[in-house]
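Continuing the series of single-chain predictions for the mutant panel. This is the parent chain; the variants come on the following pages.
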Amino acid sequence: MHNQVPPDPTQPPPYGPLPPYTPSDLPPQAYPGPQSFVPPPSFENPPPFGNPPPPFESPQSFGNPPQSFGNPPHFGPFPGYPPPPPPPGPSGLAVGALVASICGGPFLGTVLGFVLGIAALVQLRRRPQPGFGLAVAALVISGITLIISIGIVTGVVLSEVRDRVAGIEDVEATDLKTGDCISDLDDAERVFDMPVVSCIQPHRAEVYHVYQFPAGDFPGLAAVEEQSEERCGTAFEPYDTEENADLEVYFLFPESALSWRQDRSVLCLVEFPTARTTPLVK
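Parent structure:
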C-alpha cells in the first residue's frame, strides 16, 4: 500500500475529461410556411345611417353687453419696512462746552468749558453719540485759555509787587495834585492813571499846576483845549529858566461833556529829558 498525499482543502477538486457530444435522436420541429395577405374590406362607400343632422343655427342674442363699472380702485404699493430712525445729533453738552470755551471769556468760559467738556465725555461713554471731538476741542481750548489767563494774572501781580517794592503807586488822573512826581509818562492817547513816586526817587515827569474850570455846560473841545493851553503856559512862567529850557510841557483836560460832568480840572505836567531825583515845585 502506497502512501497518498491528502488533498489540499484550499484547492478546487480535480475534474475529469468531458464526455463526447452525441446528436439528439429527436426529429427537428417543423415551422409553418408563409401565408398570403388578405386586404380588409374597403370603406369608400359606407352604408347610409339615416338623415343628415340639421344645420347649426347661430346662438340667440342676449342684448347689449353689461355696462362698464369704471376703473378699478387704485391700491398703493405694498407697504415695506419703515425707514430707519435718523442718526442722533451731537451731544448738547459737547456743543455747549465748545461754545463756552470760545465765547465765554478767559475766566467764566474756561470754567464752563472744563465742566461741560468733562460732563460730555462722561455722557458719551455711557451713551455713544457724535460729539467726542467737540468735547476734546473744548477741553483743549479751555486749557490754552487757562494758561494764558494765569500768565496775565501773574504778570499783573508781579507788576504790582514790583511797583510796591519800588515805591510806585498807581493814582487816577483825576486824583493827581500839584507836586506829584511821575515815574514815567505813558504815550497813550488817553490816560486814566499814572505811576506816582516820591520826588526823591528817579522820575521823568511832575505835575506843576492844576486848574479847575468853573461850573457850567461843556463849552466845546476847542474852547477847553485853548483855555487849558493858556492856563498851563501862564503857570509855567515861573519855571521857564535857562536850566529848564529843555523841558516839555503837557496838559490833560476833559474832552467830552461826559468827562466834563465827572471832572472839570486841567492837569499841567512837565516832562524831564532824563530821570531826576529833585522836585521842580518847591
